[in-house]
Amino acid sequence: MSRTTDILVTALAPAVWGSTYLVTTEALPAGYPITLAALRALPAGLLLLALTRSLPPRAWLGRVFLLGSLNFTVFWSLLFVAAYRLPGGVAATLGSLQAMLVILMARGWLGTPIRAGAVVAAATGVLGVALLLLGPEAALDPVGVAAGLGGAASMAAGTVLSRKWQPSVSPLSFTGWQLTAGGLILLPLALIFEPSMPALSGLNLAGLIWLSLIGAAATYAIWFRGVARLEPGAVSMLGMLSPVTAVILGWFWLGQGLSFPQIGGAAVVLLSVWAGQRANRPRTSAPLRRAVVIRANAA
């Protein structure tokens, strides 16, 4: 596949993740964040393990549990804490800092050069998310801010390390390993820190099925496929599509208002995502360019 196709396919994952807020608030019981995260991760992971019939080798267990912790256990837990203690716009704006953190972490762990255009695109994306979601009621709770920053750092680290550690298995298998590991860590935490959930309704079950099968198993397989094929900075910029989708769904499904600043913010986000893909694309070395020109002239 071409790089453009890989970008478009990978973009499907964060676009679908934008539905998480709608499904969580409209279809799931409130007050059980860790339990719901466990029910989202573990069934999806076990299903992928059953489908792929692939278990991580013993030498990979440490890496798999670390990645599962970063991408799911820590990230989802802190995401819920930030959502409970901060207005949604503040939490999402802090989460959008992930793209900037990926640029810095990729430099340290992968040796990826820091490009000015990529930094500008990431900063512009944060501004666009702020325009899209921040309102006059925005407040800064210290615990919530720490959770929002911690969640962004956790997902950024998980993205970069998922690129650094690439097992010779399919994205479905790699996703199944991480989801199962993350779910196994979340399950005892839910049993210790949260009360038992009430009986689930049909709507609750439908919401969990969506978040687990589509919002976890399918989309994270797409995401990790993109992580393996694209530059970390380019992949992380696609994550800014989630708040755009969330706002569009809120307007279409819940009848929430959409102001001109929000429309402008959405346009800024989309422009920054496009600019981020161009800024992070691999550059052909000078000797390779000369070889291409020589071959073209010979032809």
UniProtKB/TrEMBL annotation:
It comes from the Bacteria. Its main location: membrane. It is found in: Membrane. Keywords: Membrane, Transmembrane, Transmembrane helix. It is a multi-pass membrane protein. InterPro entries: AA-Vitamin_Transporters, EamA_dom, EmrE-like. The chain crosses the membrane at residues 7-24, 30-52, 64-84, 90-110, 117-136, 142-162, 174-193, 205-223, 235-254, 260-276. Residues 7-133, 144-274 form the EamA domain. Belongs to the EamA transporter family. This is EamA family transporter.
